[in-house]
């Protein structure tokens, strides 16, 4: 047993929908971690169970102890190709992304990259993620193995893509399906790992491959399904030309049985009201990736449109590295605020922190295991120093509320604000 003390923050729900009561905060709080790597208790120190009085303590002072960040959309084979100057999404994919992803055919390259990638997530306070791998089976295997070695909760899968890309990054419907099946059999629900059926998007998957994807999801309904949807205008026009009989982009996935409660669609920027209604009715979710959307000039995600109460589509928050420009979920929250402002909306910091923890965990169907500090969940923790840099410290002096302090961390913070990261009660990162 070990007791960590400091400011303790987590959520029981989305504060935007459930009010401030969904925010749990203790200025003098503690998190008690059992030897099994799970949380034994968390709350205000005044309520510490008497049985824990003698347990070894680690005091984090004014730092904020919160559930580890969950990144709901990130690309492993793009781990080092951030800041590639494409003209738009499709140009960026063709010129920079596909050639870089081609390297992941080589097992040794994928294994080295997997270690670097996951350690980078941990250094940014991200303890769980839904990850796109490359088209190559060996790359997904390398990533699963590296996550298992770190004890992380990770969902990934072999990307399926069988057209409109170089041969070095394409498969075909049959091998794509067989490789996915083999990976599901070996890795899905093994420890903390989850398989995500991963057709890249409608432009790079043929009718036949989308059908295989739908059949995989039908056969394995507890797998996640991830793809991209309605990100850029030129992408949407291309999909319309490739699938002239479908009434919109969402219909392409819908027709292949790819909508549903375990489906996460990255971006969803230009969705019509009717597309949102069908996504909502199917229980599908979209994932907002603000740094990617501004970097690639894709457009402004409108959280009020997507989440409209009469047909709410659940949404998460993600970095989308390497289209995204930061591994930091704090920086991502700050950019989500700016995108919301440009769309005429507000995104309070408490809501961003909810989305980056319990919200994303729930979208990944991991809400019972991670995402908050409830007793029984895995002790995946991120410790944030609201005074990590001279600028943050000066700004923190002005903070008048929890919202204010979190907002400053989101807008000015990044990995420098991560003091330490824990996975299943084990320290996996500590700032030097
Ligand atoms: N759409 C299809 N593939 C990708 C990708 O790798 N990144 C982004 N941002 N969008 C995509
Ligand atoms: Zn993506």
Describe this structure in words.
There is one protein chain. With 432 residues, the protein is α/β, with parallel strands linked by helices. It contains 15 helices and 16 strands. It has helices at residues 15-18, 89-102, 107-123, 137-150, 173-187, 207-219, 233-242, 249-255, 273-282, 290-295, 303-306, 329-342, 349-363, 390-396, 402-412; strands spanning 2-11, 23-33, 39-44, 57-67, 69-75, 126-132, 153-157, 159-160, 193-199, 224-229, 263-267, 285-288, 314-317, 381-384, 418-423, 426-430. The strands form two sheets. Strands 5, 6, 7, 8, 9, 10, 11, 12 and 13 form a nine-stranded parallel sheet that branches. α13 packs across α15. Residues 75, 89, 93, 97, 200-201, 228, 231, 292, 320, 323 line the site of guanine (GUN).
Give the topology, please:
Layout: E1 2-11, H1 15-18, E2 23-33, E3 39-44, E4 57-67, E5 69-75, H2 89-102, H3 107-123, E6 126-132, H4 137-150, E7 153-157, E8 159-160, H5 173-187, E9 193-199, H6 207-219, E10 224-229, H7 233-242, H8 249-255, E11 263-267, H9 273-282, E12 285-288, H10 290-295, H11 303-306, E13 314-317, H12 329-342, H13 349-363, E14 381-384, H14 390-396, H15 402-412, E15 418-423, E16 426-430
Parallel strand pairs: 1-4, 5-6, 6-7, 7-9, 8-9, 9-10, 10-11, 11-12, 12-13
Antiparallel strand pairs: 1-2, 2-3, 4-14, 14-15, 15-16
């Amino acid at each position: 047993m070990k007791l960590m003390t400091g400011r303790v923050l987590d959520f029981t729900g989305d504060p935007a929908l459930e009010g401030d009561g969904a925010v749990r905060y203790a200025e003098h709080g503690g998190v008690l971690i059992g030897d099994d790597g799970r949380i034994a208790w968390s709350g205000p120190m005044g309520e510490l169970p008497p049985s824990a009085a003698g347990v070894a303590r680690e005091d984090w002072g004014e730092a904020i102890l919160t559930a580890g960040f969950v990144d709901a959309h990130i690309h492993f084979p793009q781990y080092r190709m951030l800041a590639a100057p494409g003209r738009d999404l499709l140009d960026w994919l063709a010129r920079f992304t596909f050639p870089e992803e081609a390297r992941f055919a080589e097992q040794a390259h994928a294994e080295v990259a997997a270690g670097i990638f996951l350690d980078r997530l941990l250094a940014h306070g991200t303890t769980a993620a839904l990850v796109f791998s490359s088209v190559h089976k060996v790359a997904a295997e390398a990533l699963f193995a590296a996550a298992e070695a770190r004890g992380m909760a990770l969902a990934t899968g072999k990307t399926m893509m069988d057209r409109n890309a170089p041969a070095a990054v394409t498969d075909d419907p049959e091998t794509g399906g067989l490789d996915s099946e083999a990976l599901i059999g070996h890795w899905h629900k093994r420890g903390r790992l989850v398989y995500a059926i991963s057709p890249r998007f409608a432009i790079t998957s043929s009718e036949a491959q989308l059908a295989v994807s739908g059949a995989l999801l039908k056969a394995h309904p507890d797998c996640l399904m991830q793809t991209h949807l309605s990100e850029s205008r030129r992408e949407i026009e291309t999909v319309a030309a490739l699938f002239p009989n479908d009434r919109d982009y969402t219909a392409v996935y819908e027709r292949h049985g790819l909508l549903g409660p375990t489906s996460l669609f990255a971006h969803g920027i230009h969705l019509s009201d009717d597309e949102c209604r069908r996504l909502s009715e199917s229980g599908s979710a979209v994932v907002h990736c603000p740094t990617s959307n501004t970097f690639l000039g894709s457009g402004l995600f409108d959280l009020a449109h997507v989440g409209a109460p009469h047909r709410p589509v659940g949404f998460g928050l993600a970095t989308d590295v390497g289209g995204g420009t930061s591994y930091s979920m704090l920086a991502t929250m700050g950019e989500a605020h700016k995108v919301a402002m440009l769309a005429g909306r507000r995104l309070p910091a408490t809501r961003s922190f909810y989305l980056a923890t319990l919200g994303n965990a729930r979208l990944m169907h991991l809400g019972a295991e991670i995402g908050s500090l409830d007793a029984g969940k895995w002790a995946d923790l991120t410790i944030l120093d609201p005074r990590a840099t001279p600028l943050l410290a000066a700004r923190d002096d002005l903070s008048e509320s929890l919202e204010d302090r979190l907002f400053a961390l989101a807008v000015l913070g990044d990995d420098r604000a991560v003091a330490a990261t824990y996975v299943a009660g084990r320290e996996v990162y500590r700032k030097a």
